[in-house]
Design goal:
Elements lengths: L8 E5 L3 E2 L5 H4 L9 E8 L2 E5 L5 E5 L5 E3 L5 E5 L4 E8 L2
Antiparallel strand pairs: 1-8, 2-8, 3-6, 3-8, 4-5, 4-7
Amino acid sequence: MKDLPPDVVPYKRTPEFSKASTPGGLLESHRTKPGTWGEIVVLEGSLLYRVLEPAVQEFRLTPDRPGIVPPTIRHEIEPSSDVRFYVRFYRLP
């Protein structure tokens, strides 16, 4: 999994989600805008983060292991029943 570039800055954050409140669009293939990085921050439980291109890769995210979403890469998530998480968005200043 990639790291956030050192020169990006946070600019937006989602509310906290549980499995029941996760928006349907996050469960299906989607992507961030050009120049926008995402950081999936798990507060409780776990979440499967699936990168869909260029090859499928899966990562189990936990409170100790956030997920980094590079710009424009198709991805989806699969939350566990006890998950609480949010997504923070970054961009170049």
